[in-house]
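Risk register update: the risk that structure generation would not scale has been downgraded. Supporting records follow, first protein first.
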Amino acid sequence: MINTERLIDEFLELVQVDSESGSERQLADLLKEKLSALGLDVFEDEAGSYVEVGQRTGNIIATLPANGGQGPMLLFSAHMDTVKPGQGIKPRRQGGVITSSGDTILGADDKAGIVAILESLRVLQEQSIPHGGLQVVFTVGEEIGLKGAKALAYDRIQAPMGFVLDSGGPTGEIIIKAPTQYSMKATIKGKAAHAGIAPEEGINAIVVAARGIANMRVGRLDEETTSNIGLISGGVATNIVPEQVTIEGEARSIDPAKAKAQIDHMVEELQKAADQLGAKAEITVVKEYDSINLAPDSLPVRIALQAAEQIGIKPYLGKTGGGSDANVFNGQGIACANLGTGMSKVHTTEEFITEENLLNNARFVLEIIKTAQEFQE
């Protein structure tokens, strides 16, 4: 049985530990202590030493060996970092709802996921519930580009499947589809000239970029696919033909082939405009993360569906246009669904979560572990 007050007290404790992206050290040390006290083998990887992560804190990977259970080893994950403003959080508990004092975020994204995992582990140990082995991964840098998950020490991961607790839907939401995303950064190089005296001697980089963008398919392309040009900067003064402009955009789709086709189209249109107007285009494309595309009858989904029903929670299979650590895990061959936690108005000072959702999250995680014993890989 989940200890509701212990669960809520731990949530209130954790949200008061500052952990904005890049500053997860204090929280990581606390979580390592908690996991070790629960009997898990705890390891911190070297994600913090990578230039692209830029932090001193690594991901936490904790392992609990099987204790006689016959089900598959499962991974449960949540991220440690929060967005800003996330320093000096003062939680308020009133009428079954937990908020911040109003001048910061709350940090339910993703400490609601963390406490659900921790409380489930406690009950698991207290009641000697059999399981086929568990791994817990608490990542850094999720809010700044899934950086911790991308730099995770995957050679330490033994679980073939798992669950990330980081979606905003209610407990019972099981995200089985999410997009592949590509980002694009293009620098258009034209030629400077005096705009009033000799504009014909210049090549206007902004005009080149504008022509390329005008010929792009941008926005909602179909039910699965979107694209966007989000940043553009360049030019020096109105009396100078701009020599250089930088454009940043993205393409994403639940269908990986569509995402790739769209980013290729965007690159092609910029290159075509540069060629037509005599400019140069230097374009970089990065695949930010892979898609989640789990079949409704895949093993982790079947386990989650049955677990929800067994504790009286109505499950539903969903899709999202956003990315999470679950995308990265799936790209590494770990079949991961992203579970709803009931966190609301995240990334704002109006963020809140209900005590009922905190309780149901822990109940759901615990029941998933128990239910997995009825399945074989």
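Supporting record for the second protein:
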Amino acid sequence: MNRLGFLLARTLRDEDALQRLSVPQSRLLSDLAGKRLALVGNARALAESRNGERIDAADLVIRINRAPMTSPESHGRRTDWLALAMRLRQADRDRIGPARILWMSHKRKRLDWESASSPGFYLHPLGDFAALRDRLDAPPTTGAMMIDLIARSPAAGLELYGFDFFASLSLSGSRDAGKVPHDFGKEAEFVSNLLKNDQRIRHIR
């Protein structure tokens, strides 16, 4: 598909056509087989940590949206995959330098051609978004969708960094929990249940 075809498919909300730009979810999950993953959220509290070296030691480092990194000591340097629910400015794309883009948002109108035509591009299925939304009784965050997705993979391990469910707010914005459409209490409960039932997953504070 060329750029014009993409713009037409996006305008017409042709999900089948847009999905043809994506690697299959089964292939994405198989790419995680046996790997130790670091999923880095954007909680402000992470800036006070010294987890950077541990993050960079993972087999695969996944960051979210603008992926603010206040220092290598707290956040590390690497970004292998970037999970997006927003358009990136070119300066952010150049700074982060991800090898693979995952478009997690159900809002296809925000999807840009540069992301959709990038190597290994993944488009998260609308059905998966809806299933998690119904489970949480609210639209899930990009982080929650990634945790749900990875939990279904054959990854060897997953460490969560920068996830405090908005207790310290976000490095990527100034809004408080009342001004975003997510239910952070439900997301915290969702992750807590995963931690109890999946020994591969660890929450690093």
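The first strand starts at residue 36 and ends at 40. On this basis the risk owner (M.S.) recommends closing the item.
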